[in-house]
Write a structure and sequence with these properties.
Length: 297
């Protein structure tokens, strides 16, 4: 142990760059590194750290209540820890992918987080179309909060009380603009999206937590292009579709894959109109992707 090193103190990780962090401590924000190569630290982690000269060293990560993951074909990446509520941010412009939105919601359901859909930029004329694209998700119970970050962010503020909320979404949807609206001193970087590419410019490059009060915080994150769910096996995946839950375990075959087996309750629910066919289709697609990924390993 380094003789000059200080006592262990606790803190909260409020910014995560790849291997560098900012920890909120009793003495203010402090740049920190991590002890060793194996300790995984993400934004929102409660940690124990020790002073080392001008900066700190994170020695330990406290047990997490939740850990939101996403994966791609090669690896699984943690986005943020101890999040209690996910806010998926969409906008009429640039256009958004409803499938990506659903993937985010599924990851949140798997971790038992509350979720909401934030329809930002409602000052734009394409708002009714964006609203219509969210309607199937609103029907199965996801709250849709409409607002314009440039005009009034109050509808979001009301939803933050008592939660650690992670804002996630494609680039250019206005996540950082919402941060600036709620935290006047934040000065989070924002940028015009590209009309030509119908996409944002990936302005935010790291995850950052802004504290509203003792019990509430908002986390801004870099724009997403993809969100794979290979880390969810077939059972976890089925449970993450909230409207499937009443039917699970009721199919004729215990190991029903909900494809073309007779007596599949999910297929029956689609036929009766209780479940949206597009959702069952998405489930099958994700399950197949998960299986291909498992076989590659
Ligand atoms: N018209 C309108 N424009 C908005 C609104 N909110 C944000 N914008 C604009 O949308 C653009 C993108 O906003 P950002 O806040 O940088 O988007 P982001 O989601 O943080 O993007 P990334 O950091 O790349 O993920 C900026 O030009 C904002 O001014 C809104 O409510 N109405
Ligand atoms: Mg941003
Ligand atoms: Zn079935």
């Amino acid at each position: 142990m380094n003789e000059a090193a200080g006592e262990l103190e606790s803190g909260l990780v409020i910014a995560a760059f790849s291997r560098r962090f900012i920890v909120e401590t009793a003495h203010g924000p402090l740049p920190c590194q991590v002890r060793g190569r194996h300790l995984q630290v993400v934004c929102g982690d409660r940690v124990e750290w020790r002073r080392n000269g001008e900066s700190g060293v994170i020695e330990r990560v406290s047990p997490r209540d939740t850990l939101l993951y996403r994966s791609d074909a090669f690896k699984t990446k943690a986005i943020a820890a101890n999040v209690t509520q996910l806010a998926v941010v969409v906008a009429p412009r640039p256009s958004f992918s409803p499938e990506l939105v659903q993937r985010c919601l599924l990851a949140a359901e798997d971790q038992g987080m509350a979720s909401l859909l934030l329809l930002n930029k409602t000052d734009l004329p394409e708002t009714p179309l964006a609203r219509a694209r969210l309607a199937p998700l609103a029907r199965i119970g996801y709250p849709v909060v409409e607002l314009s970050a440039l005009t009034d962010a109050t509808p979001l503020r009301k939803r933050l009380k008592g939660h650690t909320t992670l804002m996630i979404g494609q680039s250019g949807m206005g996540k950082s603009t919402l941060v600036n609206a709620l935290f006047p001193g934040a000065r989070a970087e924002t940028a015009e999206y590209s009309e030509a590419l119908d996409s944002g410019r990936h302005t935010t490059t790291h995850t950052r937590l802004y504290r509203l009060d003792d019990g509430s915080a908002l986390i801004d994150s870099p724009g997403l292009q993809e969100f794979a769910l290979q880390h969810l096996d077939a059972d976890a995946l089925a449970h993450a579709f909230i409207e499937f839950r009443p039917y699970l375990g009721q199919c004729r075959f215990r190991d029903c894959r909900h494809e073309s087996e007779p007596g599949c309750r999910l297929v029956e629910a689609v036929d009766s109109g209780a479940i949206d066919a597009a959702r069952l289709h998405l489930f099958r697609l994700l399950r197949q992707a998960q299986q291909r990924a498992t076989h590659r390993l």
